[in-house]
Amino acid sequence: KQTSPAQSEFYQAVEDVLESIEPLLEERPKYREQAIIERLVEPERQVMFRVPWVDDSGQIQVNKGYRIEFNSALGPYKGGLRFHPSVNAGIIKFLGFEQIFKNALTGLPIGGGKGGSNFDPKGKSDAEIMRFCQSFMSELYRHIGPNTDVPAGDIGVGTREIGYLFGQYKRLANRFDGVLTGKSTLWGGSFVRKEATGYGAVYFAECMLDDKDDSLEGKRCLVSGSGNVAIYAMEKLYELGATPVTCSDSSGTIYHEKGIDLDLVKRIKEEQNGRLEDYLETHSNAEYTPRDEYPEDGHTVWRYKADIAFPCATQNELTEKDAQSLLENGCKYVVEGANMPSTQAAVDLFIESNTAYGPGKAANAGGVATSQLEMMQNASMLRWSFEEVDEKLKGIMRNIFKDAKRTAEEFGHPSNLVLGANVAGFRKVADAMIEQGVV
Ligand code: NDP
């Protein structure tokens, strides 16, 4: 039952899972008897805290901080921190809930958690970002630990922010341990963590295409976003012979018929913290659509002709009308790099039309899986090569695909990876909860 209108994304995520697991609940009544759903939708612990910091002009600013420790049946809480003005308790709750099943799907021993702040990193100086991160960690450090809760990055939190957060943690806790992942490779970070979510989504796409005796070679791809996930998805697409023709940011969308100039996007986004509009200074023949000219019922990025769509920006960025447009334009595959980027109506349409649809929970799990590989390296004080980690990531993505596919077949819907991923993830968590008693 929905009791708080402010948590709409959380209800959306719960509904998605509950709908898919209906056949499993019929088959195994013990899940109902043991009140697994009632327990699962209630986080084990949530902390909300004040984050005061001083800006460059000497003014005191105050933001909200969150960490939600949702479920630890399979291992320590694990999930990213998001810094974005849209962050609220409902968004963090939806992300934390999704994380439980995603982490279970990786087959690795990690529970689900998420955190963040409504802090907006845009337009802030490096010193302001550092002071904010230090203040955020001054509260967070008492709740986390390498065997209890291990945060990572998400929107607005990359290697720089993880560095400032870790510096403050170390100072307060007097410990150098694997309490955060996504660290710089100079001091404890894992190779391939930065690339992992984007690469992983493309490896997942490869499995989906392979399943239909198809390949990425020569495919035109629509990508949304131009952050961490989008950039490394585009990099891997090029490596595997496909061509990304779009990318976007919160101000607008670039369409470049002959393929996105990825080096330029990296320069604009990773080095200059700039806007995608600047792309036109180098490529005046590319098309730029500002956000206020997007169609009322959706997003320009999904209105072009292509074979595969990779939503890699944010939740609910692909509407039912966008989904219709993709199908009309011959798009055959949708692979989610972002968390819950398609609205429920869009997902329903993909499933009804038998479009090959890879839900984020499965397709973007490469990031958290590689975070867990970072934890393994930290715990053993070892360091694996780029190739070694990349090979493990590829193997994990293949296993996730196989697990979701096999489970979908088991329940008589072989092409429904939403059902497959939800049931496969849920079953692992539910069984672990039962074995651990009523806690
Ligand atoms: P980044 O902050 O690196 O990039 C986010 C991108 O999406 C930017 O291009 C940003 O534009 C755009 N964007 C963010 N919010 C909005 C919005 N409300 N409207 C339009 N555009 C928006 O984040 P990531 O690439 O790390 O994350 C992208 C998605 O992938 C998120 O859903 C995240 O939860 C998910 N994800 C990330 C993982 C990771 O390892 N990083 C792991 C698994 C999932 P602008 O530059 O203008 O802000």
UniProtKB/TrEMBL annotation:
Instruction: Give me the reactions it catalyses.
Output: L-glutamate + NADP(+) + H2O = 2-oxoglutarate + NH4(+) + NADPH + H(+)
Entries under CDD domains matching the protein: NAD_bind_2_Glu_DH
Highest taxon of the lineage: Bacteria
Q: Which Pfam families match?
A: ELFV_dehydrog, ELFV_dehydrog_N
| InterPro entries for the chain | Aminoacid_DH-like_N_sf, Glu/Leu/Phe/Val/Trp_DH, Glu/Leu/Phe/Val/Trp_DH_C, Glu/Leu/Phe/Val/Trp_DH_dimer, Glu/Leu/Phe/Val_DH_AS, Glu_DH, Glu_Leu_Phe_Val_DH, NAD(P)-bd_dom_sf
Q: Matching SMART domains, A to Z? A: ELFV_dehydrog (SM00839)
Which key words are in the record?
Oxidoreductase
Q: Ranges for the Glutamate/phenylalanine/leucine/valine/L-tryptophan dehydrogenase C-terminal domain?
A: 190-437
Task performed by this protein: Catalyzes the reversible oxidative deamination of glutamate to alpha-ketoglutarate and ammonia.
Summarize the subunit comment: Homohexamer.
Family of this protein:
Belongs to the Glu/Leu/Phe/Val dehydrogenases family.
Task: Return the protein name.
Answer: Glutamate dehydrogenase
